[in-house]
């Protein structure tokens, strides 16, 4: 008989070839890198600076996507991350403008992310509203708030330490943004894979009822996950503002979709219960690499979009057995 | 006159004394209203010239250029690109990269960093924001690339040293022409609304300011009864719907770009208004508003930039900079006021081709 | 009643919405006893036990352990009190591995760190599973296991908690003899070490062999508690179903079947890993049982006939034509009641009505529209015929008791009047009364010409239904026998283990 | 019994008060209408014209959201609808500009939507890639294609019949856009609720495997659903272009999120298996009404965003029992 029936005999989210698919994002990442290295290696693609650039410009998406992996693994979604990033950036910048030291600004900024996260968590777990709606509403609300607070004006950041730490600085020759994203991805990886909390997240997303029967406090787990997402979005906001030495209300627009794409591309199931931070990291880098390479190739914007869109689909199709 | 209870945009600042002074003039034709960001006077784009010798030198240089746009998708951007690319082609300068940040500052920075890798000799770019993207421009400049800015410069870069020039429309004048066109079409009196782009964006801010200044200074009988924002051109219609519902007897509207303006056109049609009792002016001279104007529709006046000329000017300044020549730091492309009367000429001026037959026919009806 | 009660549940009440499910139920458990909890489908057994494990909160009543009132408001409170439960509907997370499921919330740590020691966890799981006599890789995701294996994981998980009170809600419903025996050995061992066990089952035979006392529930009330030694199966059944409602679950010799051409021909079937060469026929009107060990590939054969799996080689011919995939199979009148009702049988979040209608939509569609009024009649008939206990056809399938869910899965196919009905563990969790009704219905339909293939791990069931029994062993049909030639379950059991008994009786089908 | 245990014993998406929640969107819609009628009734909100305007401006989202209800009910997502709408609008406009009659343009436009839909369907059902990724890639690809084809220039539409039929026309005093959205919603309602296909969609989304075992051809169902979504997006594109008498590559940007919001607001579960078209319709109108009312109230953009975002969350919170 045809392979057709075989596939359909199991739910889409529990593919047995999931393992293999997890590697697809790495394989594809390497393939894309290789392709660009061969075709545009001589046009500067392969320079250390350019490779660092890719890592740097994807840092915010990576940080958001790591937390998004937690959110999605727990069976929820967070669309408010983009505007939360802007909120945190503005909070930090305004606190510094008011004359406080940068560590205080950082604490305030992360605090603002935690506030949004806890509101999301409250509405999702206590009131029981689907997270898509809660965070969509929150995304708008916070963006409106960002606009209101600053009259849409940018707020510049003069603090050199802050800008170096969160933005354009380097440590031992490595851009601080790259360090941030690697550190966050590593922590995320360890938490998801090697701690009880990570297990509880996966259990909650895999089968909430079963998790509850096993004593997992799934509400608390979800609440925590939204808190984490808020904090990560806030950190991303600080990175945006450090990189630009400015904060602006429109930071992070569209970041939520990019981050979700990185997560799914990495092999995490949108239906929850499965998550891989390393895949997410690779997914984020893959997207960044494609964007970077296509520009260096000299494609015009419409071509860039077509190729990038096509690659996203093919990257995954590639990992499927033919016809399966 | 501006209604007392009007809600100006969040970023609005009162026009300066100088602006008010010019706004009160009878005619502003030939006047460069806007100063550069550093107060420098504008240099008319038409006066930029390259000698044959200079052209030869540029050709021999085998220069490369990258273009980083903030958005695409309107005639302004595409005409600008045509002007740029045609001129670069003539000058033998190779376009090695073209990017579109799609209104996203962070994307623009990523674009600029990628461009930096290519080490082009020249960068022509419109910064989405003068502060957020400043670092990225500085980095490119420091790596030896000459920079030409469209519309605005970024903070911390100085003309002559860090960048060659800003080439911009006279945005205050654009706004003032809009006020003129609206007032003319209304016979100098009526209630109007201003629909502005709500985000803080340097050039649109100036246009709104110019419009308001001109109405205040020159048209006491034009009452601006409402100012409303949109943050997405596609939402123009929705916003116009609301305005017309609330002010059913409104006589006219300043509708910012062409897309929101066409939204307002639909809105007015649906509201049962006619071009006789409702006028719309806008600041993009593109095919759709031109057609509507030719058909004697709601679009009564357009304050047009000259994006093609601006592109040519940018490329020219760029070429001069590549040769190490002195360039004026603030080059202004004067706007063009388009009404039904001068439509064919204006079209020819801006698009360098004759008015499409469709419009010619509509005009003659 | 000498030993003092270790656990006392008294006057427990519970309603869901306005529907009372438990009405002043009392239940007591002694230290070190195995206490059978019996009752028809929907009697409230699972609900009572979920109250004990903190999954549901009681409306009123008291629970005492060792004489002390205890508040079991959530699952962790119950766990702290030393209560563990093997859930009927499996409390496993399909995306996690076997080991991750067993140790969820209790993962061993790398000493001195908050990090999970994954290899230790796998090692311990392997030991546990070994004790249960199965070979399951602790690192496979639970979602890819068959129900029988899932049930064993569920058991392993409960055992790993070292509880004082262990509630087993139909632990053997998907297990075959060998695993059941291993479980019973374990139960005996646990009992000796002083653990108290509540044992819920619809398998009459096993109850009296392992239990010390029995409590029978009917319609949300306790109707009997007594020592097992004093009881017979008949007494229990009568208590469960009410006086005069004795159910018979016995084999009838339907006589030799008329010599018709086979409707199903399975030829030299070879399937990945477990099935090597399987050949058999089924004639219209015949009820054929397929016996085998757990994991011997019975389900895979069923799914291949149903067109859901591709054989490596060999073919399935139905009514003279090869089966070309599942939809072809369904179109031509093959129906499969799958072994995992929750995963394959039901849309749990849809109503009873929608579930019954699903395979029958085409029948009730006129001018593109589903004729709901007409369909409702069929649905109501199904509910009545299989005595599905539900508040109405619009109740969500998820809210029905386990056995009643199973009845929907059977009912939705019976409503379609198939030509070949494949039943894979058809009566998992179905009470004795309903079981005999279902068997009667199937027999009646077979009398009208429907062919039936029954797969069951419960030999009693196979013996009660089949006209003919095929024994699958080592990937082949090792024996084919007429039911009337099989004297006892014991005999069949031996055959399944691979002992060729009385070869003279093998019929040639 | 505390409500706690009840809630926690089942997944959040399948609340027992789902029935009641379904009505919440209607109740809230009426409440919002009532609120605006009282506060800004005298400022033009209550005029027939304004009410029609609300219906007109939401027509495209409604049409897309109706098909999106099908997609989501079947357990998938379609993010490509916005760029598909633009594609169809451009296709129609270019065909008319090339001199063909409007019915041919309409057929071509719907055809372009079907092409995108069938590509989505192919990748999701045959190759087996998560629809989120497929349609995200497709969204980019098609948008790039839209740009490429027109060099980002708008294409104007002169055909009066077309513009009246799909845009600003009225029939018996009722705006054609309103008629379109009501007709599509009605058809959608009947198909989802009263046809075998509708039942199959819901079963597929509720439990794909069980649906297969019951003879539902779930691949075909999903494929069809993507086709429908493509066609609906194309129709929405025609409505956009009829309304603006122009087609432009950036039509429908963000429409996917708006449509999904309308669907979820209406009471459809993001996880599939449950869907209500009437709820979707009400959800779409609710969003439109809020936007319209806030503009008439004279709130500035940032305030509008804050209030609209807040209302979306509250609309659903309102339907929850306190503390549940
Ligand atoms: N969450 C719920 N909401 C509404 N009704 C419920 C719920 N859970 C159980 N019921 C109803 O309570 C009754 C008792 O169910 P329970 O699961 O306790 O039966 P049971 O004795 O375990 O039956 P079985 O032998 O079939 O497993 C059934 O009629 C069932 O429909
Ligand atoms: N030892 C095992 N470990 C893990 N998975 C197994 C094992 N044996 C079988 N399975 C899985 O269980 C599924 C069903 O297997 P099979 O068809 O052999 O079951 P069966 O003979 O009906 O037995 P039962 O359903 O009673 O377990 C198969 O898909 C197979 O992948
Ligand atoms: Mg039960
Ligand atoms: Mg089986």
From TrEMBL, chains A, D:
Keyword Transmembrane listed: yes
Membrane topology per record: Multi-pass membrane protein
InterPro entries found in the cross-reference section: ABC_transp_permease
Subcellular location: Cell membrane
Cited Pfam families: BPD_transp_2
Principal localisation: membrane
Record's keyword annotation contains Membrane: yes
Superkingdom per UniProt: Bacteria
Gene Ontology CC annotations of this record: plasma membrane
Residue ranges of the TM segments: 23-41, 53-73, 85-110, 122-142, 171-192, 223-242, 254-271, 278-299
Protein name: ABC transporter permease
Source organism of the structure: Neotabrizicola shimadae
From TrEMBL, chain C:
SMART domains on file: AAA
Keywords of the record: ATP-binding, Cell membrane, Membrane, Nucleotide-binding, Repeat, Sugar transport, Translocase, Transport
Residue ranges of domain ABC transporter in the record: 7-244, 258-499
Alphabetized SUPFAM superfamilies for the sequence: P-loop containing nucleoside triphosphate hydrolases
Any one Gene Ontology molecular-function term assigned to this protein's record: ATP hydrolysis activity
InterPro entries according to UniProt: AAA+_ATPase, ABC_carbohydrate_import_ATPase, ABC_transporter-like_ATP-bd, ABC_transporter-like_CS, P-loop_NTPase
Gene Ontology cellular component annotations, sorted alphabetically: plasma membrane
Name listed for the protein in its UniProt record: Sugar ABC transporter ATP-binding protein
Species per Swiss-Prot/TrEMBL record: Neotabrizicola shimadae
